[in-house]
Amino acid sequence: MSTNYSVREKWFHFLNGEDVGTIVSPLCDDWSLNIPYYWPYNDADPFPPGSKYHSVSQQMAMAGVCGWEATFLAAVLFQPKNKDILPETKSETIDGRTRIKARIQTPYGDLTSVTEHANSTHIVKAWLENEADYRKAIWLTQQQADYDENVAIKEGMCIRRGIGDRGVLGTWFGPPIVNLQNREEIFYHTIDWPELFDELHAVTSELAFKQLDTLRKAGFDYLFYCVSGTEWISPNFFRKYILENTRKIFARWRAQGGFILWHSCGHLKIFVNEGFYNELKPEIFETLSVPPVGDLPNLQWARQRLAPDIITKGNISLDVLLNGTEEEVRSEVRQVKEETQGYRHIVGLSDDVLHNTPLSNCLAMVEEAQRS
Predict the structure, then answer these.
(1) Are residues 103 and 75 in the same domain?
(2) d(CA 361, CA 350)
(3) If 47 and its partner were Cys, which of 5, 51, 205, 364 is the partner (CB 3.0–4.6 Å)?
């Protein structure tokens, strides 16, 4: 077992099947500790406070302070060449609530959305609510596909240089069901306007495949692949609108040398039982959560049903890391290691690190995970 690898090298040797020791890698997309942000490395902070990429420096700092092997997350801009399709927004205050109106001009009329924000967000008017909205969205998606690729590549390479060998770089990605999808009414739309829904699904997929190629050129190593809504989508919906496109996305990304980290913190039991994840085989799968976050009986149950060559990741409880004692954190780590013994597993969390998490608990998690 080599101890001379950089964190980035360690990840790729691990993915290639080498025993590189325990890997600890909680999902973390900003500075989340109970102490003020600081840069722990000897070189200068590449994205200091005020930089548009400061969250990347925050992730690097978290990894440096806590001692884990990071999977960094960032996004780039797919800047459309047609600037007229950028949304115009206006806000007003109504009875203590902030109402935000967004408008995109199309040849078929304005495409609009209205949201209200107070303690929570309420959608007054979704982007897609009627047949006309779908026609506008199809045109918009075709326009969005004509973007300045060089802008995205330049951004990605800038982030890649800033990270150096401190870890691997990924970005959020998901199945291209339909652009601007209305999650509350999507099932009705598949029945009310099936041809328009399928047409928007097709152009959304074309846009996603083009963006995929750009992301790889921009230096991204992995897709942080999210299939949201496992609490309410059915296996049949998954098969029709998610399965095949996901298969194509994975094949296309891997052909260019990238890997997949599939994140799903919802209800997965039925999808594990259906064998979808074994069929698609992401390199890494998280979070395999038990109630109240997920619906799996336990981590061992899931690990025994997933293919042995899928690396799993998780599953320390966020509330324990945030509010528990160091010994409670260590106990959770020991349980995770026990339930995944004999399998390839990364010690992580049930979701993103919560803000104001004690540094002492993070250090305890890493130390216990690395204990033989």
Answers:
(1) no
(2) 15
(3) 51
Both 213 and 328 in one domain: the answer is yes
C-alpha separations of 9 from 6, 69, 121, 164, 218 in Å: 5, 11, 42, 11, 19
How far is CA 175 from its chain centroid? 12
- Greatest alpha-carbon pair distance for the chain in Å reads 64
Same domain, 244 and 320: yes
Provide the residue type at 311 as one letter: I
Q: Say how far apart CA 177 and CA 179 lie, in whole Å.
A: 7
Q: Say what the pLDDT of residue 119 is.
A: 81
pLDDT given for residue 47 in this prediction: 99
- Give me the number of domains the chain comprises: 2
pLDDT of the residue at 1: 54
Q: H helices of 40-94, where?
A: 54-66
What pLDDT shows up at residue 372? Answer: 80
Would you say residue 16 lies in a domain?
A: yes
Residue 2 is predicted with a pLDDT of 52
**Gap between the terminal Cα atoms of the chain:** 14
What local confidence, expressed as pLDDT, does residue 120 receive? 85
**Closest C-alpha among 134, 104, 117 to residue 201:** 134
Where would I find the H helices in the chain? 7-15, 54-66, 131-144, 149-163, 186-192, 194-217, 235-238, 244-255, 269-274, 276-280, 299-305, 318-323, 326-339, 359-370
The residues facing 260 across adjacent strands are 223
- Structural domain containing residue 97: 83-129
Q: Tell me the C-alpha distance between 369 and 49, whole Å.
A: 32
- Any residues with CB less than 8 A from the CB of 232 and at least 6 apart, and which? none
Q: Is 46 in the same domain as 87? A: no
If you search the block for the tokens 């293919």, which residue do you land on? 307
Burial class (CB in 10 A: 0-12, 13-18, 19+), 100: middle
**71/93 same-domain check:** no
Binned average pLDDT, 10 residues per bin, the chain of 372 residues: 85 97 97 98 98 98 98 98 96 92 98 92 94 98 98 98 98 96 93 97 98 98 92 87 95 98 91 95 94 89 96 95 98 97 96 97 98 86
List, as one string, the DSSP characters of 118-160.
SSSEEEEE-S--SHHHHHHHHHHHHHHTSB-HHHHHHHHHHHH
